[in-house]
Amino acid sequence: MTQEQLNESVEYLKKRGFEIPEIGIVLGTGLGQLIDNIENPIEAHYNHIPHFPLATVEFHTGKLIYGTIEGKKAVVMQGRFHLYEGYDFVDITYPIRVMHQLGVQKLFVSNAAGAVNLNYKKGDIMLIEDHINLQGGSPLAFKNVSQFGNRFVDMSEPYDVSMRSKMEKIAEKEGISLQKGVYASVVGPQLETKAEYRMIKTLGADAVGMSTVPEVIVANHLRLPIVAVSVLTDECDPDNLEPVNIQEILDIAAQTEPKMIKLFTELIKEI
């Protein structure tokens, strides 16, 4: 990755009409309905944006959408990139750097995840307070990283405290049950074994998924405040583990998504 590549990506999007967005949003698996809230949308498909990776997962559509949400200019990433698609960490996080260079000042991230904390149930939303990186690498581990920011990034509080607090108050006001916890990120794409779920729980995680952590690390590298939520789509009880049903996961994500959208849109109003 070079600064020239970033400049070319940003220049293309500006010519498409992506003018100084304030908010960046990354939508997770099965969580695409938020785009219905965008006024005057402008789309840019990933395969048209210079130097962008291509989305390869069948239920990730692969485009950036620019428009207005609750009176604020926003860029929404519909379809993200994952290690399990064969990308490296720099590819996965390239769109975050592009959004930041466009002018984004706050980042909202969602994902679908499995509940490792058995007090949490499928259909719950979990506000991520911290994370555990089990992906075996870092999006900052490349030679010229210091050209883009400090190599050694503080991660003592990776998720913005102020936005978390505001989201909790919004959830209470709207009557939305909002869990809080630690998200563990693994490589995938295979789901975890019983022993792996036990390990992840022992490590202190409340939910597990295959994304988000690389984006959060880069957001911190860019000093970009971030808030993230997991839509819990399955319960990962190693003593009563049933074969995974991907369609059920997508269905639960879709059913829960309106609550997540309410949390996001109300928070956008407030910041």
From TrEMBL:
One term of GO molecular function: purine-nucleoside phosphorylase activity
Key word Glycosyltransferase present: yes
Gene Ontology terms: cellular component: cytoplasm
Superkingdom classification of source: Bacteria
A Pfam family per the record: PNP_UDP_1
Top EC class for this record: transferase
InterPro entries: Nucleoside_phosphorylase_d, Nucleoside_phosphorylase_sf, Pur_Nuc_Pase_Ino/Guo-sp, Purine_phosphorylase
Keyword Transferase tagged: yes
EC number in record: 2.4.2.1
NCBIfam families reported for this sequence: PNPH, PNPH-PUNA-XAPA, PRK08202.1
Known role: The purine nucleoside phosphorylases catalyze the phosphorolytic breakdown of the N-glycosidic bond in the beta-(deoxy)ribonucleoside molecules, with the formation of the corresponding free purine bases and pentose-1-phosphate.
Protein name: Purine nucleoside phosphorylase
